[in-house]
Amino acid sequence: MSSARRALGLLTLAVITIAAVAAGSTIAPGHTGAQAASMHNCPPPGKWAIAVWDGESGTAAGDALATCGADAVAAAYSLDPETGSWSRWFAGKPDVSNLEPLDELQGVLALGGAAAAVGGDSLAAAQAEGEVHNCPPAGKWSIAVWDGDSGTPPDDALATCGEDTVAAAYSLDPQTGAWSRWFAGKPDVSNLAPLGEIQGLLALGTTTGPVATATPPATATPTPSGPPGPAAGATYAGKTSQDLLLEFDVTADGLGIHRVKFGFEGLLHDEPCQGLLNMTFGHAQPIVDNGFTIEDTDYTVTGRFDSATTASGELQVHIPDRMADPGCFGDPLTWTATVQ
């Protein structure tokens, strides 16, 4: 903690944004016009699911979602991977809905309504080959869709986006609301089960990015949020409840925090004290379930990612006296930060 001592010598830590996605996919082998169009993985009543439209491109969102059953879907959101913004559809609310007609194999985050979902059965026969549609652009999120054999390992499915082009992927269990995850080259922290046919995923592109498989819509209205999860390799900066600087860096793989910097004010023997602490970690502090905790002799920082671009948390300074360096003790603080 020598850097903390040096700093003190100077006395100086999901829901959804909205726009349209056009998956731009072509019909995969094995799909025929004889198959009935339907939503797959329709949400249970009152719960969320990543549902996928398996029908003609240009189908109105309301008509597509109606295949889940009458009043079975209360709301749906679509993610534009280029802008990170979302578009929305609310049952019976055309005045506030802006979700464009759906493309074939387009995934949406859907919330179940009062009625149980009765449609959206899976295809009768698995396909011999498969691919991921709407692969994420470099460093951005998309709702990607696996269109291939059930039981395909995530590594094999996501590799169809291109070698080393997907950094992470999340799957939502509509029954429990729990997310499972996959990180490229990290089997020890990945728990995403083999994929089912027509399964939707929230996928994050690496810095190299995939070959484009979709064309975003001509118009999109960015809004200030995004899906939960850290932005890999990003610096988040903001202020504490004392109106002082707080910033931190996320590792390139999105799995940890490797630097944190913050200003603070407190008391030492009933006298005011202040400081600016800047710590770089030899081993990144892990991000688990969209949150992190950094516990140190001199301070504690906790944080959570409210979206891909925003984070918030708590901070408390508790630096003891050390020989020539005075200590400093502060009340618990809150903080917010955004991607720079």
List keywords for this structure.
340 residues; mainly beta; nine-stranded antiparallel beta sheet; 3 helices; 6% helix; elongated; disordered N terminus
Brief summary of the model shown:
The protein has 340 residues and is mainly beta. The protein has helices at residues 2-9, 61-66, 154-158, and strands at 38-40, 48-54, 73-79, 86-90, 106-112, 131-133, 141-147, 166-172, 179-183, 199-205, 235-240, 245-250, 256-268, 271-286, 291-295, 299-305, 310-319, 328-329, 333-339.
Report on the architecture of this protein.
There is one protein chain. The chain is mainly β and 340 residues long. The protein has two domains: 2-14 and 229-339, no CATH class; 38-205, no CATH class. The chain has helices at residues 2-9, 61-66, 154-158, and strands at 38-40, 48-54, 73-79, 86-90, 106-112, 131-133, 141-147, 166-172, 179-183, 199-205, 235-240, 245-250, 256-268, 271-286, 291-295, 299-305, 310-319, 328-329, 333-339. Strands 11, 12, 13, 14, 15, 16, 17, 18 and 19 form a nine-stranded antiparallel sheet that branches. The longest helix has 8 residues, at 2-9.
Radius of gyration: 23 Å
**N-to-C order of helices and strands:** HEEHEEEEEHEEEEEEEEEEEE
Fraction of residues in helices?
A: under 10%
Q: Count of DSSP E strands? A: 19
Q: How far is the first residue's CA from the last residue's CA? A: 27 Å
SSE blueprint and pairings:
Elements (H helix, E strand, L loop, with lengths): L1 H8 L28 E3 L7 E7 L6 H6 L6 E7 L6 E5 L15 E7 L18 E3 L7 E7 L6 H5 L7 E7 L6 E5 L15 E7 L29 E6 L4 E6 L5 E13 L2 E16 L4 E5 L3 E7 L4 E10 L8 E2 L3 E7 L1
Antiparallel strand pairs: 1-2, 2-5, 3-4, 3-5, 6-7, 7-10, 8-9, 8-10, 11-12, 11-19, 12-13, 13-14, 15-16, 16-17, 17-18, 17-19
